[in-house]
Amino acid sequence: MSPDLTDGELMLLGLLAEQPRHGYELEKVIEQRGMRAWTALGFSSIYYVLDKLAKRGLIEATDAPSSVKSRVTFRVTPLGRELCAAATRDALATPTPMRARVLIGMANSPRLPDADMVAGLTQRRGAVRQQLTEIRETRTRQEPLPMAASAIFDYSEAMLAADADWTETTLNALMQEATVDKYNVKKTHRELYSPPSKEFTVVDVPEFQYIAVEGSGDPNTSAGYANAVQALYGVAYTLKFASKETLGRDFVVAPLEGLWRADDPTVFTTRDKDRWGWTMMISQPGWITEDMVRAAVDNVSKKKDNPALADVRLHTRIEGTCVQILHIGSYDDEAPVLDRLHNQYMPEHGLTFNGDHHEIYLSDPRKTAPAKLRTVLRQPVKRG
């Protein structure tokens, strides 16, 4: 399209180049020919565009101004006819850019629930089909049509039919994917991943397998810790995609978890992080094998140089009886909760330590304010 004329301006200029018309006649022709679908030109905008074209000297009134604005008849000036012809040649030669708003919707759709996507595309499918029906009815009412008009309807029908086919295909693919039973450890073991935040609860934790990396030192400053977390997420997502592609079994990547240990448990309440040892983990479905993990590690290693990848291993763990609570707040504010667990709850219930302190990070600290972080604090226990 020539930059000198908008779509709406070129459309009105072309209609006036056919013959002089007033505003109401222009609206009738636009409606009869189904031209409204080509631009965003509404009825109330016609007079605004006519005024713009007149001020540019591209059209002019054929007679004295009328008291009824819609009855002022306009005709194209020689300058307007010349510019209309140039813009028309450009419009015929230039491909239409793809700016469908639905493409933005699809780009943003991963942040919506599947049900919202299905509902939106279902509504779109109905609306596109209705537009296609209306275009065909408009065409039928005006047949026989000259070649140019017939070609215009052909194009409109082809675009709407392609849109309808795309929407139908996308919707079917989405619904098929939504019916696949994705394994989600947080839903399958809801009682272990959504404890209350007001009181400690006792749970029995069965066998789980994880991909894991071990290390030690302050997680806030240790390069080894940062590398371990990055390696685990890289391998976890690679395993997810490989599982879906090769086994047809999909799963939701589980949250990051950490086992924390020290010779003296009081370092957790004093927050002496340099003396902490840790094993960072991400839970894996039972069908993930050691060979799959090795293949995933090799795959990620080709794309990213991370020394922690060599330490990723498949780890099986049974914690048994545990006491846990949901902590809401900064990681550094866990000390009072742990002090209450270690020095009040456990002694009062005749319990003692039976394994590493376990934390499950339900929130992404990169996107969540410290005061709103949600962390499961879990301690394996035994009668003491």
TrEMBL record:
InterPro entries associated with the record: GyrI-like, Reg_factor_effector_dom_sf, Tscrpt_reg_PadR_N, WH-like_DNA-bd_sf, WH_DNA-bd_sf
All copies of domain GyrI-like small molecule binding, residue ranges: 199-381
Superkingdom as given in the UniProt entry: Bacteria
Chain ranges of the Transcription regulator PadR N-terminal domain: 12-83
Protein name: Transcriptional regulator, PadR family
